[in-house]
């Protein structure tokens, strides 16, 4: 072990990030970079007390260093081996990442660094961890396919402290099976810790002993939620399974008490637009009205004002309300229930642009040419008073179907017609820039008064939806342009499709005699032309779904990368701060520039990553709930026959969709007939070796429902014949 020397290289002041640490902390300790540099120069794994000497850490600084080393272990920069010695992770070929479990018991490490491929973790390794834990893995070999296998050498962070599951045994020792099937270990509940739960109960479990080598996970039941067939149980399960915050922290109560109705002081430095004819247009059941619109028709141009709830006036950066909104990231919309990002006092009342009450807003004031181009814009805080709360259905009837106009005030019809004119030129501009427009049919679940599912019906968009969408797009693009002019912002990015997915799409299209231009570098126009080619085909909805699957997910980031699908070279989210945290951040940024005050902006990328993650979390949770509800609807129809379309093909079978009900299920390969079926990934096809029977994407079949699994939210069919 080398002795600590007094050369300049080891002096605290020689830490290249000393100034940065001094700005952050009153008593700065060595930076992570400097600690790693010292460890590298040491040349061997190092004990903590030796590291303290090399870094010249004072007694009063040891606790702070301990916290820093713990954080470096959590982030996978260093680890502590069996001899209690610190090692640099990359020196011993360790890779940090998140565990992704599989219902069959094995799993994968999804590395933090994108340049690393996923690493296979066998059932023995998965016995040490839960799905979503962060770990350090050392590659131990290759499987027969040449894929890396790993050994978990350290658990960096335990993700699951509370789980939702079902009691499967309660004789002597209670056992709970997790509802998230990616967690395959059963949880043992010691005697007296089960709250008298019985088999079949859905419960919430606090994990008291995490899984490890030769150690089974243990816990205590902290809530008996209900039975699997209770009304609303599917949402209670999804909230806990996906770790969605659904109870507001009590700390926000004091902040909410201080927030009152609008006072004269709130109107200072705001433009008074209360006499302008602002209206809101939303769905029938909406309660949180983010946006209101107003338009004027001038000889040479239109003036479009989009008023967005000024949430940032009430939710201050760093407050308990802000922390709660950040943790949630977005509101989550389940059938019959909403988990709001903000408390009801704000989301449905003070911030919601309800009719006939004064409300604080941020205005995107735009001049739109008669060709639908945003010629100029400005942003400013204002106060408005919405004149009407309208629905998409009513607006569509009034100005697009021209029905029942005499039953409504002339002034309203005039203003709606002006908005319609703005929409028409914006829509024309959209067509000219070749934005992709998918004609998706979504499903809506209808319930009876007792909360039982009555029917599943298609939900289609009308022209009023598109009118509001075009107004919001114009405001979002203007906000993105404004932030770019200031050289800082949070953007909504949608990048070009990846090669692998494009190759699969092109192969599928060739089976339908459809050609897509652009090779592996298609532009938006190529997608628009493709959609036009398939519009009149019988398999339009299925092919459109394949086109959607070929695209990347949109995400948030601090660097603008444009929006491929909308054909914008810049884009952000400005129009929904009641239900999306990124919009709130964008409002704060715009206000900071208007007020000539700089905000903290070095965390924008991490905010974007977090909000992209919470958005995916919400999507997964709502998908789980919808699948569960559809399974519940179908469980009494086992044995019935259905006409279906093949919506996806895998090596283990085909997924089929009952188009009328928008319900999807699996026909396992063993239910296709007595043959060996070979999967062709490029052609998205299964073919029998002996019978040469082919099952391709888009084929129409007759099937019979044979099984419904409420736990997994899945249903199985057996093949009858081709149609």
Automatic annotation (TrEMBL):
Residues 1-22 are annotated as: Disordered. It holds the Pfam family S1. It is found in: Cytoplasm. Residues 1-11 have a biased composition (Basic residues). The keyword Disulfide bond does not apply. Residues 639-720 form the S1 motif domain. It comes from the Bacteria. Its EC number is 3.1.13.1. Residues 12-22 have a biased composition (Basic and acidic residues). 3'-5' exoribonuclease that releases 5'-nucleoside monophosphates and is involved in maturation of structured RNAs. The gene is rnr. Belongs to the RNR ribonuclease family. RNase R subfamily. The keyword Nucleotide-binding does not apply. PROSITE patterns: RIBONUCLEASE_II, S1. GO terms for molecular function: exoribonuclease II activity; RNA binding. One of its GO terms (biological process) is mRNA catabolic process. One of its GO terms (cellular component) is cytosol. Keywords: Cytoplasm, Exonuclease, Hydrolase, Nuclease, RNA-binding. It catalyses: Exonucleolytic cleavage in the 3'- to 5'-direction to yield nucleoside 5'-phosphates. This is Ribonuclease R. InterPro entries: CSD, CSD2, NA-bd_OB-fold, RNase_B_OB_dom, RNase_II/R, RNase_II/R_CS, RNase_II/RNase_R, RNase_R. It is an enzyme of class 3 (hydrolase).
